[in-house]
Amino acid sequence: MLDHIAIQVNDIAASAAFYDAVLAPLGGERKKQFGANISFGVTGHPLWLVPAEDPVPSREVHIAFTAADRATVDAFHVAAEAVGAKVLHAPRLWPDYHDSYYGAFVRDPDGNNVEAVCHRP
């Protein structure tokens, strides 16, 4: 159902570098630049970073990216730590969600909650 999402960022270069690093283990990469806007994806352009134009702080966004397996979630976590991301939750099972839910959660440069999740056992 979801085709794409755009999130406003305060520093487009810093945010693009963060997403370059954390999406690489998931197979994601920069796909397109349209003016100052930058898209990321495996195919298509599902995630867009756009410069924030409103000085009012925005609310936190939660973005969860699909990982093929648990090792990929772990690699996402390592990549996030390597670029200095604040770790909210290290990779682990989340049985409250379901028995095979394995995820890691970090903050992007704008304070958004970014997750990699594998639903496979």
Flag low-confidence runs.
none
- What is the number of domains? 1
| Strand order within the widest beta sheet | 1-4-3-2
**Distance between the ends:** 25 Å
Oligomer: single chain
CATH class: Alpha Beta
Q: What number is the mean pLDDT?
A: 95
Strand content: 35-45%
Q: How many strands, which pairing sense, and closed or not: the largest β-sheet? A: 4 strands, mixed
Overall 3D geometry?
A: globular
CATH architecture: Roll
What is the helix tally?
2
Organism: Streptomyces nanshensis
Pfam families: Glyoxalase
Protein name: Glyoxalase
Domain VOC: 1-119
Plain-language structure description:
- The protein has 121 residues and is an alpha/beta fold.
- It has one domain (5-52, 60-118): 2,3-Dihydroxybiphenyl 1,2-Dioxygenase, domain 1 (Roll), CATH 3.10.180.10.
- Helix content is 21%, strand content 37%.
- The chain has helices at residues 12-23, 70-82; strands at 5-9, 29-34, 37-41, 47-51, 62-66, 87-93, 102-107, 113-118.
- The strands form two sheets. The chain has a four-stranded mixed sheet, with helices on one face. Strands 5-8-7-6 form a four-stranded mixed sheet, covered by helices on one side.
- Helix 1 (12-23) packs antiparallel against helix 2.
- The protein starts with a strand and ends with a strand.
- The mean pLDDT is 95.
